[in-house]
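Hey, quick one: can you model this chain's 3D structure?
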Amino acid sequence: MIRAGFSAAVYTQTTDVEGEVNGLITYDRKTTKIPNEYLNILHSRLYKVKSIQATNLIDDAQGGRSQQREITIDGVSQKVTTPYAINGPKKVYSKQEFNADKAYENLSLFLNVRGKTKVWLNGINIFDEEVKQTRCYNQHNISDYSNYLKKGMNTLEIEVVHDNTKNPMNFDYGLKGF
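Sure thing. Here's the predicted structure for all 178 residues.
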């Protein structure tokens, strides 16, 4: 994910505070518990990574770019504009063919769904999880399965069982390679 420009740092407590001693620096700020030279070794490799531009293999509706998709809801096929609102308990399925012009070492799956979700890449199940829907698309690193991607035509299939009767589900997905 670093190559795609992602970075993160979480220090919940940079210094010790009264009653807690899990900071990087002592309460009086006089002693750094991990020597600066060692921290430099740990972090310097992050600055040497060359970023690359991600390729949209399957477009999603992020940024207002709605997509036309053929989906099946409870066995009935229909063409919809994504993100598509699904109300009540439903089983939703979508199959998307896409062209990969080269092999990609890293793959990111973007999901805007809620419920038990299964994903197949070229017929191989690569994702089987309960997905909680948020206000934005959830990004899932599926780079471990990039070897199932082939140069030329590929197929991504998604099945979501939405069993929530109170909250509708938006349905959309995308795939990026880099």
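One thing worth noting: The chain is about 5% helix and 45% strand.
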